[in-house]
Write a structure and sequence with these properties.
The protein is an all-alpha fold and 329 residues long. Helices cover 68% and strands 1% of the residues. A two-stranded antiparallel sheet has the order 1-2.
């Protein structure tokens, strides 16, 4: 194969072929990555709708919907339509991630870090699709369901990081606040992860099993797990307040202080929803809102941590995708 043959190279590497013919603006790259982030949240909320409507086994096998049909059948009714619809949204999510990969690869200059993050998103989506199938085949095993949610959280982590990187350069990260503040952010990240993990245990031992049939639950007392989850939430809130105060004391950049303020607002709303749903015997609508809130809390925590450092353009002249001077490229 001749090294300079664009036709043969294009056949073997379609991304390079597209990149040679299309150069998206930095704004287009940002929008593509943001679409993947939005869809990673949407898939969590719609997955919650499957559980809360008791449609988890609406399609009783995988990868087909029934043993005889790839698509949902009329006999499966409402629950089958809900479950099958959520499966179809996986393709929408995959398309959003694919668009982000293509846009990142086609941008000039090519930022390899964005492309790598895009492929990480792709493999997480594929892994979670397989785990979703295992969840169905095991009759909504609560541990598999919890793993399904945690993998979705991992996807949100990577899409948020990728979105942030489109607004930065590729230089080495430089701190914007003193070291102790950055250590506080690591504590905030760790306790929020504990909070999210505890939430999966509350769900796994709670009343919403995901189907009207008898579904195995986690062998934990629901009231106890709910109280552990609440304590974790209070620790996260305390750390978030501490972060907000410390950032003001060290005179952190305005955008960093704004991220800390946003986190407090999201936590306030999420805490209110959590206590109301506990007091009202976890109605479905509030559980769905709480799942959305969980995603938004995690994104807000990540944005605080990411705002504590900056990545300038490399000295070689590689500009950040968010540079307004590049908008016409």
């Amino acid at each position: 194969m001749h090294k300079g043959s664009p036709t043969i190279w294009g056949v073997l590497n379609p991304l390079a072929h597209i990149a040679s013919r299309w150069t998206p603006s930095p704004r287009t790259v940002q929008r593509a990555v943001l679409a993947a982030l939005v869809m990673s949240v949407v898939i969590v909320v719609t997955g919650g709708a499957v559980r809360l409507t008791g449609s988890g086994l609406g399609c009783d096998t995988w990868p087909k919907c029934t043993d005889d049909s790839l698509l949902v059948t009329q006999e499966q009714g409402f629950h089958g339509a809900i479950e099958f619809g959520n499966r179809m949204l996986t393709y929408v999510l995959s398309a959003a991630v694919g668009w982000a990969i293509i846009a990142a690869r086609s941008a000039k200059p090519w930022r390899h870090s964005l492309t790598k993050l895009g492929w990480v998103q792709f493999f997480i989506v594929m892994a979670n699709a397989v785990l979703g199938g295992i969840t169905v085949l095991t009759g909504l095993n609560p541990y598999s369901v919890a793993g399904h949610f945690l993998l979705a959280t991992a996807l949100i982590t990577v899409t948020t990081l990728t979105w942030q990187r489109t607004r930065e350069g590729d230089g080495a990260p430089r701190p914007r606040v003193p070291g102790p503040v950055r250590k506080l952010s690591w504590a905030l990240l760790a306790t929020t992860l504990v909070l999210i993990a505890a939430g999966t245990v509350v769900t796994g031992s709670g009343p919403h099993a995901g189907d009207s049939s008898e579904i195995k639950r986690m062998p934990f007392d629901w009231d106890t797990t709910a109280h552990v989850h609440a304590v974790s939430a209070w620790v996260v809130c305390a750390l978030a307040v501490a972060m907000w105060l410390v950032l003001r004391i060290v005179d952190a950049p305005a955008d960093t202080r704004a991220r800390a303020r946003d986190l407090l607002l999201v936590l306030l709303a999420q805490g209110a929803i959590g206590y109301v749903q506990y007091a009202t015997q976890v109605p479905e609508a509030l559980v769905a809102a709480h799942m959305l809130g969980s995603c938004l809390v995690w994104i807000a925590v990540l944005r605080v941590a990411l705002s504590l450092r900056e990545r300038p353009a490399e000295q070689a002249g590689v500009p950040a995708q968010g540079d307004p001077q590049l908008s016409a490229v």
